[in-house]
Amino acid sequence: MRLFDSTCYSLCRGSAIGLLMATCLLVSPGLRAYTIYVSSEKDNTITLVDGETYKILQKVEVGERPRGIALSMDGALLYVCTSDADHIEVLDLETLKVTHVLPSGPDPELLVLGPEGRYIYVANEDDNMVTVVDTEKREKVKEIQVGVEPEGMAISSDGKWLVNTSETTNMAHFINLETLEVEDNVLVDQRPRVAQFTTDNKQVWVSSEIGGTVSVIDVASRKIIKKIGFEIPGIQKESIQPVGIKHSKDGKLAFVALGPAARVAVIKTGSLEVVKYLLVGQRVWNMDFSPDEKQIFTTNGVSNDMSVIDRERLKVKKSVQVGRMPWGIVVRP
Amino acid sequence: MKRLSWKSKKKIDSLFSFALLVVLFGLLLPCVALAADREISIALLGLEEKRHVPLSLLEPIIDDNGLAGAEQGIRDNNTTGRFTGQSYKLTQVEVKPGESLERAFKALHTQGIRLFLLNLPADQQLKLADLSEAQHSLLFNIGAHDDSLRRHACRPNLLHTLPSRAMLADALAQYLAWKRWRKWFLVVGRHPQDEAYAAALKRAAKRFGGKIVEQKKWTFEPGARRTDSGHTKAQQEVNAFTQTGDYDILLVADETDEFGEYLGYRTFRPRPVGGTQGLSPAAWSRVHEQWGATQFQRRFHKKTGRWMSERDYAAWLAVRSIGEAATRTSTSDADELRAFIMSPKFKLAAFKGGPVTYREWNGQLRQPLLVTSPRVMVSVSPQKGFLHQFSTLDTLGYDRQETDCTN
């Protein structure tokens, strides 16, 4: 009996502590809690999704046609390219209010934040420029002439290069971040949309929406190492339109969103071979990782949802309805 | 080591200078070739014609139809050219009535131009394409919708960036099939091109399950676009003219825009109007804003103060096809450009969602077509469900086995 008593006691005590711990976890913001921000170009909203439960926390109204979004260095602000409002709106993520706007030139679509966190670089499709904006002084610092319809923007984490793609010129322009001059141009396939540096900054990947390929460019020599093509049984070649690119931090895998093909391609960065195609929603364009990189989230513009991909198992595990025509996505730890 | 004699040393010296010369010449030669390849001249050949006056007062009278599109193409190519070292030049020639078109073509050929945009009727284009001067030239049809050019009278040196009437009619018919609006009332204007448009609609009806339940010819004389109380007459005329058996949609063939606009909302039965007016198939329209077209439309409007026409778009496509091929091949040679344009390597981004390419059997650019209303885009054809073994875009217009052309 005594034995039983003591067992019961310890059991009870154990579960009490467990309960307490669980409560603590629920109450205090645990390490794993994070929020997903999705811009919806048709709704003019930013949707906040809980990273654990995938419940929609809130929808915040912003200016017309929000597309590209980016977090400030400290994660306190969200920069939103409101394309039809012709400026960048700055959303305070504590109050969820737009505090001020930044000048961007007409129809901003995508932006990147410099590694120093002060300057943002915006592609202006209407006048063949890349605009550099000082977020502190809230003014344009410089405009850099590039090809026709600049779109994709990538910045190397070492602060050396800004790569911009121009959709009608079909080039990746290498801009020296110190001089802010175009130093080199690499011809890629038709309608380059997104540029992304690998984690080690040795390569930059450029997706060509109409060409249907991803060009892997060696940064040192500015030569194309490989053009990765895609083939999906039962899907017409013209429907395979690569747009968003994401590299895992460990540098092993890359994920490429294939637009109307409703697939995300998984690529081994070592061999540059496609290892798997994951079926997601329609017109998949942009992606982001969860902070622990165990999940990948995609925006699917035509099916109005966000797919959740399990990175370990390489399986799509859920889709979450968000705003109408979701476009950009970032995860805030 | 044996020392070289003075004589042999001199011989070596002269040999060395000769070698140096050869090397220098060798270096210069590609420079010369490069210089030639750097400048790419394109001519736009058209006729000086009476200005076309649209029926609607909202439509502008366009003086530079086609030219403005070609110029946009040149600007786009030159922006790319800044990075590739190529520069593009456009020469426009408008032949006056009574002057020889062939002479104008030959004069441009003498200037060294081998790339031509033809804003001309079909028969004139064929005459030019058959000239010996045209044999190593590349010609783009930006002015004629005629099916004959795509079906029987093809020329290997003549490509078409303007859609054929059959393509336009098929694009509309596919949408009507999707809507299950199967019974068509066809109203045809008094010009040969109206008959040709009607013929394309009849062919499309057969292909996509439409039925022409009624057909009438519009014979009223057209008048001025501006008349006081003109509406009362149109109201009476159209109401009486359209008293027929039942149908799903009235399809009008009025390419010169003489009366089609009058039909909408005035028909005896409450039915929609489509064809050359109303619900219209087109390669380009001001209402098109998808797939990045917004920037393209804005760029054009900012420069010209008007919206881009279908002919402007055809001209832009031709100039961009040349630009795309010249960028990829680093050449300005017409034969080499043509070979690349017709190869599977060629793909052009043209604000239509997917790449546009050329049909190798008749040189027709295959592209999705818009189904538009005057104020918004209604749909884009090919419609889902119309399948093709090679490309669904080939469900629009004359397919390989339907032509005598092999190019």
Descriptive labels:
heterodimer; A: 333 residues; mainly beta; Neuraminidase; 4-stranded antiparallel beta sheet; globular; disordered N terminus; B: 407 residues; alpha/beta; Rossmann fold; 2 domains; 4-stranded parallel beta sheet; 12 helices; 15 strands; 40% helix; 17% strand
Explained architecture:
The complex is a heterodimer of chains A (333) and B (407). By secondary structure, chain A is mostly beta strands. Chain A contains one helix and 28 strands. Chain A has a domain at 230-333: TolB, C-terminal domain (Neuraminidase, 6 Propeller), CATH 2.120.10. The longest helix of chain A has 26 residues, at 2-27. Chain A is globular, with a radius of gyration of 22 Å. The radius of gyration of chain B is 26 Å and the shape is globular. In chain B, helix 2 packs parallel to helix 11 (310-329), helix 6 crosses helix 7 and helix 11 packs across helix 12 (334-341). Chain B has two domains: 38-163 and 285-367, Response regulator (Rossmann fold), CATH 3.40.50; 166-282, Rossmann fold (3-Layer(aba) Sandwich). Chain B starts with 5 loop residues before the first helix and ends in a 26-residue tail after the last strand. Chain B has a five-stranded parallel sheet with strand order 2-1-3-4-5, with helices on both faces. A four-stranded parallel sheet of chain B has the order 7-6-8-9, covered by helices on one side. A three-stranded antiparallel sheet of chain B has the order 10-14-15, with helices on one face. Chain B is of the alpha/beta class. Chain B has helices spanning 6-38, 67-84, 101-110, 122-129, 148-151, 165-179, 192-208, 230-241, 260-263, 293-304, 310-329, 334-341; strands at residues 39-47, 87-95, 115-119, 138-141, 158-160, 183-188, 211-217, 249-253, 273-275, 280-282, 348-349, 355-358, 365-366, 369-372, 377-381. Classes of the chains: A mainly beta (333), B alpha/beta (407). Chains A and B meet through loops of A and helix 2, helix 10, helix 11 and strand 11 of B.
